[in-house]
Amino acid sequence: QVQLVESGGGLVQAGGALRLSCAASGGFFSSYTMGWFRQAPGKEREFVAAVNWSGDITDYSDFVKGRCTISRDNAKNTVYLQMSSLKSEDTAVYYCAAASGRLWTISTRARARYEFWGQGTQVTVSS
User: Which of 34, 61, 73, 108 has the fewest beta carbons under 10 Å from its own?
Assistant: First the structure.
């Protein structure tokens, strides 16, 4: 079982950038597909980005494509989400998630694919 702890959130002006980190412990990190999701007040949790076990396959939601980069460092048991050109609508709690197994499928975008979740980190973008 893996534990996930996010960090790097905060308050940023529109157009700014943030890098979120998610540190994993208690599991074999490189065996997990990793994802980032977000949840804004009054909305459902939605997929943001995912990366496969080796870091060479990534997927992004349309609303962040071109503005975000997901990456991972298996030696540090950490996954990152670099966000730029932030907009007020990016304001949300951002969650890191881990899915067992190295299989990469279309279900990687589904919340149900992920067994383990962090507590989230707040990102607030002021306009």
Answer: 73
Please report the DSSP string for 23-88 in residue order: EEESS-GGGEEEEEEEE-TTS--EEEEEE-TTSS-EEE-TTTTTTEEEEEETTTTEEEEEE-S--G
**pLDDT tens-digit map of 9-50:** 999 999 999 999 999 999 899 999 999 999 999 999 999 999
As a whole number of Å, the CA-based R_g of the chain is 13
Nearest partner of 50 among 106, 4, 89, 1, judged by Cα: 106
Nearest-5° Cα angle at 40, 34 to 45 = 40
Virtual torsion, Cα 8, 49, 42, 18, nearest 10 deg: 30
Report how far residue 82's alpha carbon sits from residue 117's, in angstroms, rounded to the nearest whole number. 19
